[in-house]
Amino acid sequence: MGTEIERKFLVVSDAWREAVVGSVRFRQGYLSRSANASVRVRTDGERARLNVKSTVDGIHRSEYEYPIPLADAEEMLDRLALPPLIVKTRHFVDYGGRRWEVDVFEAENAGLVLAEIELESADADVALPPWVGAEVSSDPRYYNTSLSAHPFREWGTGG
Question: Does the global pTM surpass 0.85?
Answer without folding.
Answer: yes
